[in-house]
Amino acid sequence: MSDATTLEALAEAQGGRAPSKRMLIIVNPYATTMSDRLKGLVVYALQGRYEVEAVDTQRQGHATELCREAAREGYDVVVAFGGDGTVNEVVNGLAGTGTPLSVLPGGATNVYVRMLGIPNDVVDATEHLLAVADDWRPRAIDAARVNDRWFAFAAGAGLDASVVERVDRHPQLKAKHGPWYYAGSAIALFLERYVVNPPRVAVSVGETTVEGVSCMVQNGQPYTFFKRRPVSLAPGAQLDSGDLSGAVLERASPLDVPSAAVRAVSPRFSVGDHRHVTAFDGVRGLRVRSVDERPVPLQVDGDYIGEEMEAVFSVLPGGLHVVA
C-alpha cells in the first residue's frame, strides 16, 4: 500500500469526529523528504482529529516567529514537519512558553524524532499523532541553551561545528549522500584545518578547565545517529534529567580523531575512555572559550550558527513541553 493510500485511509478512519484541539504545523518545504502532495495528505489525515493550520517557512528564523505567535494565540500543539533544523527553530519559539511541541519526520536523519520515540516514517508518525489525540499527555522535558540560542538535543563548538558549516553549504549533496557526505566532509576538513595548528579552546566545567580542539554537548541520548547507528559521546544526560553531558577532544592527531570516532559508534567501547578525550556528565552549565584569538565555530542540532570567542552552555529543566 502506498503512503498516499495509507494516509487517505487514516483520514477516512477518523469517522468524522469533531476536532478537539488546535494544531499548527510548521512545514519546511525544502526538507529532504518533503513534497506538496505529502504535506497535503498529512494535513488531510490529521484534520480528522485536529483543527489544523499548516504554514510553510519562508526564510531562516521564520519558524521561530510563527511559534512565538502560536504560543500567544493558545494553540494546543505546534508540529515541526521537517528535519532537525526545523525542530531547532520551533524549539526556539516554544521554549519556556508551555505550548507543546510535536514532530513529523521530514529530514534525512531526524534525531529528535527518534529520541522522542516518534516513528521515523511520516505515515507511522501521522498515525501516532492521531492516536495521541485521545490520550493527550504533554510532558515536560529539558531545553538546553548556548549563548542566546536554544537547542533540543546537541550542540558543538569546534571541529563538529566546522563540519556542519561545510555540509550546509552543499544541501543537494547532503540530501543525496546523507551521513556519508558528513563523513567525507569531516575527513577533508580534519586534514585541511585540524591536523596542523588547529584552533584551541578551553572548556570550564565548575572549577575544572580542560583545553582541546572541540567540545560536544548533549541534552539527551544519543548525540546523533550515523544511519541507524546511535553515536554516543558520554552517558548521563536524558531529555528530562535536568543536566548536560558531553566530551572534549583534547587534540586532533591523525590517530586520535579516527579512534575516537570508532568508539562513538561502537556499542562495546566508550568515547570517554579514550586517553585524549575528557567526558563529563551531570553538569548544569559549562563555558567554552577561544585560547588563541581565533573564534570558535558553533552548531546546534546540526545547524551551523556562526563563530564566537566564547560559548556559554546551560539547561532549563522542564523548559519544553512535548507530545510524543
Write a structural description.
The chain is an alpha+beta fold and 324 residues long. The strands form 4 sheets. A 6-stranded antiparallel sheet has the order 6-5-18-15-8-9, covered by helices on one side. A 6-stranded antiparallel sheet has the order 14-13-10-7-16-17. A 4-stranded parallel sheet has the order 2-1-3-4, with helices on both faces. Helix 1 runs parallel beside helix 2 (36-46) and helix 3 packs across helix 4. It has 2 domains: 3-137, Rossmann fold; 149-322, Tumour Suppressor Smad4, CATH 2.60.200.40. The longest helix has 16 residues, at 179-194. The relative contact order is 0.14. The chain is built from 10 helices and 18 strands. Strand 8 and strand 9 form a beta hairpin. The protein starts with a helix and ends with a strand.
Could you give the topology of this structure?
Elements lengths: L2 H11 L7 E7 L8 H11 L3 E7 L5 H12 L3 E6 L1 H11 L6 E5 L5 H6 L5 H11 L6 E8 L2 E3 L2 E5 H10 L2 H7 L1 H16 L6 E5 L2 E5 L1 E5 L5 E3 L2 E3 L12 E6 L6 H10 L11 E7 L1 E6 L5 E5 L2 E6 L1 E13 L2
Helix pairs in contact: 1-2, 3-4, 7-9, 8-9
Task: Give descriptors for this structure.
10 helices; Tumour Suppressor Smad4; Rossmann fold; 6-stranded antiparallel beta sheet; 18 strands; 324 residues; alpha+beta; 2 domains
Assign the structural class, choosing from mainly alpha, mainly beta, alpha/beta, alpha+beta, or little secondary structure. alpha+beta
Give, in spatial order, the strands making up the sheet with the most strands: 6-5-18-15-8-9
The chain-level mean pLDDT equals 88
Instruction: Specify the number of helices.
Output: 10
**Poorly predicted runs of 5 or more residues:** none
